[in-house]
Predict the structure.
Amino acid sequence: MSTPETSIHGEWSSRLAFILAATGSAVGLGNIWRFPYITGEYGGGAFVIVYLLCIALIGLPVMMAEVLLGKRGRSSPINSMRILAQEAKRTRWWQALGWAGVVAGFLILSFYSIIAGWALAYIPRVASGMFTVVNDLSTTKEVADFVGARFGDLVGDPLRLLAWHTAFMIVTITMVAGGVQGGLERAVRWMMPALFIVLLVLVGYAMSTPKFMDGVHFMFDVDFHKLFYPKGEFSGEGVLVAMGQAFFSLSLGMGAIMVYGAYLPKHASIAQTTTAVVVADTFIAILAGLIIFPIVFSNGLEPGGGAGLVFKILPIAFGQMPFGSVMGTLFFVLLALAAWSSAISLIEPAVAWLVETGKFSRLSATIGCGVAAWLVGFATVFSFNIWSGVHPLSMFSAFKDKTLFNLIEYLTTNIMLPLGGLFIAIFVAWLMKRQIVAEELESSPESFGYRLWQFLLRYVTPLGVGLVFLNAIGVFS
């Protein structure tokens, strides 16, 4: 069966456009706060080394495979997998891989929008100088209580959360409705350069802080003892966390990279473009650490707390430092830009499939998907306030304290994405015809590069992703 030459949705105007879009999909809230936080928790430089190895040995091969599937299928993930399964003479059940990616991306968007709304809400808060009052408080506890109370006021008010959730989704829908070049490409062409500029400005500011080198040492000093003994006892958890971060930070297994690959120009090199995306994504994560840690250390704060690092700890730092309101505003603008660049890729697979059914225009499909994600997002909004005591699966010990938001997040990020990545690797490396794979990669099956990539995808990647998945479901705990 022949595959489509071009996508009915159009194509990126250039390889650079794809690189910007795919990098935007990969860069998100996880790069800005999660990577620095877990880097410090699991040994600094030792963790970074393992993370970079995981990016090279797991993340890059899977991303190349996912882009290849999209470029070959030239459709939404659902229809691409149907086309490619027929071409490879495999069971039609492989189409379920496309469905899983679309559903995962849709569910992630439903809660991602609320978290992104927090970043939007903090832009006017920080810009107005709300947190400069911490200079007038006498004790560390008073400062922490004040900043924590402001965050509690936000998440405890469902109407306020809904307002920011709505604002974020409206902008996302507007960007996606314009199509590949008129909407997606136009959005990333200004968002990604803006994100890089804000990053570099904040890095420059961090370099002016008295503890900049402390932040550098915190990220790059190698201490394998912290990596393997994070809690005083030997554990391989740090390596598994590095694998997971490498996998999730590249937006793999959720259909976004596959559908973006469907819009890749015919003769664009998959290896070169994906390598550029991986390098840019990793570079941004490292820059985020060089911003956050010097600011935190310069204000005598602790670099822990996950999401609290952004919304509970950094406002304290911005409230105390010179020009803190300006730099704090830039930081939360950075978070919002990163969130939008990811959000448009999360909704695109579902939109593309609806358009391909022939029953929806681009505009109606985007509005329909956006409104649906907005409505599902109510579960996350209410999980932080009026439904905070609702634990639907409390009869199971592993889920007894999980709210609806926690369950959706756990299902998507810990189960659906790792399994999606695993089956992408299996399908491309073991089931697709070798000649077709080599043709899409524009490489000889006998070349060293092709053989190395195939070895990594066939053996190393499934092992690594399998370990991440088993760790996620608690096998190693």
